[in-house]
Amino acid sequence: MKAYQVRIELDQSSPLVWRKVILPEGATFARLHQVIQNSLSFSDCHLYMFSLPGHQLRVTNDNQAHQVYQEYRENQEQIEQTLTALGTSFARLQLEQMRTVVRSPEQTAVDEYLLEEGLLHYVYDLRHRWEITVTLEQIVENYALAYPTLLAGEEAAPHDSMRGLAGFREFLDAYRDPEHPDHALACTWAKQQAFRYDHSEIQRRLRALAE
After folding, report:
1. Letter string b/e over residues 198-207, b meaning 16 or more CB atoms within 10 A of that residue's CB
2. Cα-to-chain-centroid distance, residue 133
3. pTM of the full structure
4. CATH of the domain spanning 3-61+104-156+197-208
């Protein structure tokens, strides 16, 4: 079986939170979402979206985005005329967003887009926006496993209740500075949540995806 070695990075994290994973071919975007969630120890409780501007495509589990796109398709001529007539930058942006195809993660395979674009942009939690980049590093031939494999990684990932990257940075400031007034609280929370990079635990979660 062919597979893809990909690098998953939490954008703008410092130190950089990253994972290197082998993803079997034929995965859907829903499966890639699960791989990212388990690799970063997220809890999979928010909406998410993959953006592929080169294909004018969004892949998301956001039902509202699907409804808006369906309404655009059903009333395309009228919407195009109305927004074009307005001639404002906001109207042009709205029209560009509506023209972007919206597809279901469960029904869209990753292979074509990963091979053509070389990287994928993923946002988890559309409110607080954890922004993650998935980069294709190499194609793996004769991959024998039915589940993804974690090859390497660094740094503990944030808990997805931290309100995005800004909240994660606030936590790290307190956790790493013994003089910070919230240092003891941050350390207690980190111990309770097992805040660390645990290669074996991540691999256990990835292996469970085959069950």
Report:
1. eeeebbebbb
2. 7
3. 0.93
4. 3.10.290.30
